[in-house]
Amino acid sequence: MKKLIAIDLDGTLLSSNIDISKENIEAIQAAQEAGHIVMICSGRAPEDIKTVIGQTPLQCPVGGSNGTMVIADGKLLSEVSINKETAKHVATTLNENKFPFKVYTNKGIYVASTWSERMLVFLEKNPDIASGLTEKEYKFMTEQPKETDTIKIFTTIDDVLNNQDLSIQKFFVPTLSGKDELIAKLKDTENISITTSGPFNIEIMDTNGHKGNGVKVMAEYFNIPIEDTVAIGDNFNDVPMLEVAGLSVAMGNADPTVKKMADVVTLTNNENGVAHAINKYVLTQ
User: Fold this and answer.
1) Which pLDDT tens digit goes with each residue over 212-259?
2) Which DSSP state fits 82?
3) From the CB of residue 85, how many other CB atoms can be counted at a distance below 10 Å?
4) Beta strands 168-174; 75-79: pairing state
């Protein structure tokens, strides 16, 4: 029976060293050779996912920016965007509170020109995070990103909002101190959903922009009943796909709440948990 296997990247398919193990690659290839479809469903932008997967022999359809951009066979199957007026309200709230943020769009990731200074303030306010960073991580987090094919710099949010070619799928906001207050300020905003992919961030999408819808779109495209889907993840932004999947698999390193709501728990991301899950729950069935 053909299945759709939806796999998260960070904390799931990727090890702590941000690489994909030989065991995980071989398990995915074995699943594909057995006729199953394996999609990567990540909070990362589609371009970023392609870069990561491009370092391996794997070829997989993608649900990027938390399933808001679903791509298979070189085609964009669905795109869920935040209303521009709503996006302006969200950006205004973030600016008023001096939060650093990135805007994920259909044309790459837009980063404010104030990113570096805001990140420095953020780490000053959150010494617990700063003290846990290596020198390399600290530099990576605080240096102003350079413009590339996928990274664009903007001065004011209006530069992004007034661009007719752009649609906005997600806001990514590093946050710890002030997190609850920010969520409280945004919770009455219509048509947005707020999630997190780790303890130090929040992610803001349209209400319908989540990994659950990404999995549904992909399953429909490949004509696979939703009960024949498997989702593997570790954090709160994975919950919607874990909820819709026929079988939900939490990583051994997953947040305890995510583990509780999943059907089964596999090994950690540093123990080839994805390969273990595919071998146990897909290939031996």
Assistant:
1) 999 999 999 999 999 999 999 999 999 999 999 999 999 999 999 999
2) B
3) 10
4) unpaired
pTM, 2 dp: 0.92
Burial class (CB in 10 A: 0-12, 13-18, 19+), 117: middle
Distance CA 51, CA 42 (A): 13
Closest CA to 252 of 267, 237, 262: 267
| Closest-CA residue to 109 (of 162, 170, 198, 165) | 170
pLDDT in tens, 103-124: 999 999 999 899 999 989 888 8
Which of 72, 80, 106, 74 minimizes the C-alpha distance to 221?
72
Q: What is the dihedral of CA 234, 236, 238, 240, to 10 degrees?
A: 150
Residues 6+ apart with CB under 8 A from 75: none
Q: Indicate the average pLDDT of the chain.
A: 94
Q: Which residue has the tokens 């702590």?
A: 16
* Whether pLDDT at 71 is above 90: yes
